[in-house]
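pipeline stage [seq->struct] | target=DHA2 family efflux MFS transporter permease subunit | organism=Microbacterium wangchenii | residues=523
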Amino acid sequence: MTQPVEGPSSAPPVELSRRRVFVIFGALLAAMFLSSLDQSVVGTALPTIVGDLGAAQNEGWIITAYLLAIAIVMPIYGKLGDLVGRRIPFLVAIALFVVGSTGSALAGSFVDLILWRSVQGLGAGGLVILAQAVIADIVSARERGKYMGPMGAVFGVATVTGPLLGGWFTQGPGWRWCFWTNVPIGLIALGVAWFALKLPSHRPAHRFDLGGALLLATATAGVVFLTSWTSLTGAAGYDWGDPGLLALTAGTLLAVAGFLVVESRVSDPIVPLRLFHSSTFAVAAIIALSIGMAMFAALSFLPTFLQMAQGVGATESGLLMLPMTIGILITSLASGLLITRTGHYKLYPIVGMGVATAALAWLTLISAGMSMVLFGAMIFVLGLGLGAVLQTIVIAAQNSVPATQVGVATSTNNFLREIGAAVGTSAFSTAFTTRLSTTLAEDMRQLPASDVPAAFGARSLTPADVASLPASVREAVVEAYTTSLAPSFWYLVPVAAVGFIAAFFMREIRLSDRAGLSARASS
């Protein structure tokens, strides 16, 4: 098929050859893999990283800072893609990710690492959103399952490859290679996207909603800081007489209120509130929020449990997460193909959220001496649930809006998932680390003073440190990790249950047979 030459006066291509679709799809998969790989690589190395940097009490912030940055920029990328086209924002996102990875690898302190992880997140937010929006541009909603399924599978593959690489780097050349490895992959993805991602650009018909973007960023940061208050300040709890806490709460509420006012009045809002008038979009948003809170919190701390409580190495902990990946692969690919074949998608969020909720309840039974076969069964079931939901709700959200709003629909759905992930990880980390510090302090007081090393403390423990402790202290640490982590999963069960219940209320809209570019050109 002959393609028009792109240029300011050229008509945008509304139909693409199958070959061109596959080339573009390859570039998108490379970018998605890059973003997904980073999260899983760092998760496995996390105990060693925070131990080396003396920040075990703030472990969750390495993940939270990354997720917060992603959440803040997702709506911006989505809106810019709708306004000016998706090619340039996509290339900028990859470049930011590479720069952030380089800075993280060179970080000399915990604060430096958090700052550069945030830069990584500013790029990663664009990789996820724009990849999904581009697929909506070039493939019809009816056919999209065949492409969204593999995107979900890429996440599953990265959850295997990442932990294995993270474990090997941690035990071999060092944890900094968890970030260095992103650089060549990112440069390759940038090159492929530069030459393959030839999509039309256009002049914006409206001004960018800068006020809405700033208020949304402020509100997002405020929510995450509130849920992370104890780990941020080192306080034992929430003292509502603290002027700083009161100011943060008031500022967050004002930002939320201001955002709602601005979005209801501006001509072209960054997050159109009318999107939520669609019950399909609203339910997909609720599911995204709940699965983000539950999924990322669980996935972030399971490798820590395996390394600290089970005494396995970083590489072995990655291998032990393999059953979850297999579960994600099975249901992600199967649901995508079945959606394309049948044209129906409502069933998959219902079943997926139900299975994921049950799996999280099952994970409350983890223990220091449990069988790894049983642990594998638990996370396999969790993977089965996640795989059926992750890409399905994006298809539902995209299909519920006009082609001109695919970017904001995609970014809003993913934004809610990521803000849920940031809040969920922060809250879960706070609950876990607070319980861990208290338990360890009590246990150490019951041991003979001669058994406890002089420099012992929860703040700088690494898996290697635990293995070298005297037997009585090591047993106390392992028991403290298990008894602190397992009950914390109960905080996630009702959150996932909300998504399960909401899925029953999703109204299924007939999947469109036209690709986004074609529909937009004729609108």
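stage status: PASS
auto-comment: The longest helix spans residues 406-446. Residues 445 and 472 are 12 Å apart (CA to CA).
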